[in-house]
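INFO  loader      accepted 1 record
INFO  loader      residues=208
INFO  predictor   begin
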Amino acid sequence: MNTSARRASAAVTPLRKQLADAPRRPTALDALAAATKMFQAGERVDMQGLARTLEVDRTTLYRWVGSREELLAEVLWALMDKTVARLRAKAGAGPVAAEIVTGAALATMANVGMQKFLEREGDLALKLLTTKASEFQQRLIRLIAEVVDLDRRAGHLHSAVPAADLPYVLVRIMESYVYLGLITGDEPDAERASRVIHALLPVACKDL
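INFO  predictor   done
INFO  writer      dumping tokens
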């Protein structure tokens, strides 16, 4: 056996082998990922079931994620943040705000997990998504403000709505159409949402 082979053999000690073979302990990020998977599948995010899936006790789970409402708010935000990031990545060089905001609304309407959540826990959904009970709405307003600012800085946007108010108005419009079933009993309306969002984000006319 040559010197390098002997060194390699000597490096694999019994302790190192046990450490390498030991299963990785779950973390708070694993809890968020597992809860998101449950939500996306249209299942109710149940804390006891989630703890069982992660093979931890409920006390540990609550210490990681806070309450069930706090966990759901993070699941909802993770999905929205990912959706907007995907839409921004595929956006072209021209005006993007209307397409991104509309795309986020349509993706929310089409999401099976969101549909089931609204059907099963509508009051809780509105509480987490549209009130100060969680930071979801404020985070979405800040994110939409970034998107709108891209068009404004590029000279693409010409809106009559004051710049400071526009992101909030857009989010409220999204909410009005996405959660229409809970508000009025009507079906969510993608076309109406798109028309209103585009009307609020008119493209600036360029001189020829």
